[in-house]
Amino acid sequence: MKQALVKLHIGVFLAGFTAILGRLIELNAVLLVWYRIFFTVVFLSLTFIFSKKSLRIPVKQMFNLGCIGFIIALHWVFFYASIKYANVSVALVCFASTSLFTALLEPLIVRSAFKRTDLLLGLLSLAGIYLIFHFDAQYRLGIFLGIISAILSALFSVLTKKNVHHIASKQLMFFQLSGGLLLLTLLLPIWLYYFPEEKWIPSLTDLFWLLLLALLCTVLAMNLMLQALKKVSAFTQNLTLNLEPVYGISMAFIVFNEGKNLPVSFYLGLCLIAVSVALQMFRIVTLKKNKAN
Prior knowledge:
Strand content: under 5%
Radius of gyration: 19 Å
Mean pLDDT: 81
Largest sheet: none
Number of strands: 0
Order of helices and strands: HHHHHHHHHHHHH
Number of helices: 13
Shape: globular
């Protein structure tokens, strides 16, 4: 369990860079996500070719994983759209509500009882979000997009949890993202028709950031988190992902100076989010020790 938690936290730390890179890349959210998934799938394909590992899985399972991958693709689209229409801090704080949506969705999907502790910890994170942003009018669209992103992230984690024990992490990632890439590619011409873009080919600088985003923040981070998901619950993973705003916002303060003139409530909100994660980590480690004894 401890090793799984370490992998989970390393993966979350790497994921903290995704918002920063999303702000640096000068592409709209849909194109950004398409390139991110494309480079990730190419890299994973090369990994399987050189390792000579088989990718054969049942067609039904392949289809299911592809559909789940489309959910993560949409999550990323709404996440980066939130960054573009608001800022890094807004998108990341909205993302922290994922734990609450997971506490609501997981029992419904896996047909289990609602866990009062999970709901309370999720609400604690939500209280942190409320303290940080009082839904300023200039951020309303960004907040709305960020909340949709959080719901999709919760749904993705719960559905992935049901498949993670039956397939290797890299295979799981490959089929999920391949499905996401396929469906996003089919939707891309429609998007560009209704929302034409002057820039749809990345510059050299954008290409560099996209490669970092694909290799470090997607392949490595997702692989670590998928390995951890074999040992921890979807709720625990998403609650730990609440540290992503802490890491990402701290970086945004440094890189984009977003921390200028922030109120005390901002820092109180971040503390509530961190406390909710710490309490969950303490709870699952304590439960593991009690079972061992």
